[in-house]
Structures are given as structure tokens and as C-alpha cells.
Design brief:
By secondary structure, the chain is mainly alpha-helical. It is built from nine helices and two strands; from the N terminus they run E-H-H-H-H-H-E-H-H-H-H. It has a single domain, classed as DhaL domain (Serine Threonine Protein Phosphatase 5, Tetratricopeptide repeat, Alpha Horseshoe), CATH 1.25.40. The protein binds adenosine-5'-diphosphate and magnesium ion (2 copies). Adenosine-5'-diphosphate binds next to helix 3, helix 5, helix 6 and helix 9.
Length: 210
């Protein structure tokens, strides 16, 4: 059947951790321009700890997998991104629940719930120059693809492309949330670090065996 296993979702998470590690210095450079130069080190520290937690006790359900990652991010990463990415993963986990498998529509619903968690916590909307601007288009693209009968793997590729476009679209935006908002007009012309990390999350999904 088309359902994905916890093991496949875990490969997605591990691939994301790998991409974050590879891009740590780049993410930190982006944050140096409009923040406090710690986004790459924050996310890398958090995802390394998440992978260590997965190594220590392999999760048996989709819910346990994402909840573990979310709790680890919340407890090891401070600042904005710890609670925001932590909530994203925690909401994905609570939506997928106590099940070893997930249907494509459940994966899409979980990602949408994750976006809702980010909004509940950070109150960002479209055009605020945050991770929202990459995540919301990705959620939209995945929902549309599945509704059109596209399979999950191809739907995730469309979500990846939407996230990348959303990331690129943050460059001309004026930041209205987070540290970058303190810069006002001087935030214009710089790509948002958190949106860049979201694009890596969707990139990782296309590199996992969905
Ligand atoms: P900090 O700003 O505390 O140093 P990070 O540098 O790790 O945290 O993360 C910064 C990123 O967090 C930003 O690039 C942005 O995408 C995201 N962000 C900040 N505030 C918000 C918010 N209120 N809602 C959504 N995302 C936010
Ligand atoms: Mg920062
Ligand atoms: Mg910081």
C-alpha cells in the first residue's frame, strides 16, 4: 500500500539533520546579516541531539518519532527557532499519533497542523519574512498535489519547490517578526534563515525513500 512507515519518516528526519549540518555555516551567515549569527549552530545543535535521541531509543510510532525530535529541539535550542521548530515537530507528532504507519493524506494533514503550531506560537503570517513564508506554500502545494491524485513522493517534490520559491521570496521582504524586525528597512535584501531551514526540511523529504 501507499502508507509510509515510521522507518521512512525517520530517514526523512535524519536526512534533514544531515542537511542542517552541511549548511550550518551558511545558515549562520544568513542570520549574521539580519539576526544574531546563531541560526545554523542552533539548528545543528538541536538536530544532532535529536539524532542522538533516536539512536538511543528507536521510535516505534510516527507520533513518537516526531514528538521526540520536537521535545529535543525545545529542550536543546533556545531563542526563536527552538520553540518554533520544536512546535512544528511536536504538532506533526501529535497529529500522526500512536501508529506505525501514515497515509499520504495524514502526512499532509500533519504538516498543516505543524504550520498551525508555528502560527500559534510565533503569530507570523504571509510576508513577515519568517519560516512561515517557506512552510505555508509547501503545505499548500502538498495538499493540492494529493487532491489532484499525485502520489506522496511527487507531492513532496512539489512541496520542496514551493518551499524553495517561498524561501527566495523572503529576500525582498521587510521583516515584521523576530530579531530581523528590529532592523526595519535594513532587513530588506537578505534571505530569511528560518525559511532557508524549512526549504532544507522539504529537500530532505525528497531525498527520503517515500
Ligand atoms: P533567534 O532569532 O532567537 O536567534 P534563530 O536565529 O535560531 O533564533 O532563528 C531565527 C529564525 O526564526 C528567523 O529566520 C525566522 O524564520 C524565525 N522566526 C523568528 N521569529 C518568528 C516568528 N514570530 N514566527 C515564525 N518564525 C519566526
Ligand atoms: Mg539568531
Ligand atoms: Mg539567538
Amino acid at each position: 500500500d501507499e502508507n509510509v512507515t515510521t522507518a521512512v519518516l525517520e530517514q526523512w528526519v535524519r536526512r534533514f539533520a544531515h542537511l542542517v549540518a552541511e549548511n550550518r555555516d551558511y545558515l549562520t551567515e544568513l542570520d549574521a546579516a539580519i539576526g544574531d549569527a546563531d541560526h545554523g549552530s542552533n539548528m545543528d545543535r538541536g538536530m544532532r541531539a535529536a539524532v542522538a535521541a533516536l539512536d538511543a531509543s528507536p521510535p516505534e510510532t510516527c507520533g513518537a518519532l516526531f514528538s521526540k525530535v520536537g521535545m529535543t529541539l525545545v529542550s536543546t535550542v533556545g531563542g526563536a527557532s527552538g520553540p518554533l521548530f520544536g512546535t512544528l515537530f511536536l504538532r506533526i507528532g501529535s497529529t500522526l499519533g500512536d501508529d506505525a504507519n501514515a497515509a499520504p493524506l495524514e502526512v499532509a494533514a500533519a504538516l498543516r497542523a505543524g504550520l498551525g503550531g508555528v502560527v500559534d506560537r510565533g503569530k507570523a503570517g504571509p510576508g513577515d519574512k519568517t519560516m512561515y513564508d517557506a512552510l505555508a506554500p509547501a503545505v499548500e502545494a502538498l495538499d493540492e498535489a494529493l487532491a489532484a491524485g499525485t502520489d506522496l513522493a511527487a507531492g513532496l517534490k512539489q512541496a520542496r519547490d514551493a518551499a524553495a520559491a517561498g524561501r527566495d521570496a523572503t529576500t525582498p521582504m521587510l521583516a515584521r517578526k523576530g530579531r530581523a524586525s528590529y532592523l526595519g528597512e535594513r532587513s530588506v535584501g537578505h534571505q530569511d534563515p528560518g525559511a532557508t531551514t524549512v526549504a532544507l526540511l522539504l529537500e530532505a523529504a525528497t531525498e527520503a525513500p517515500f
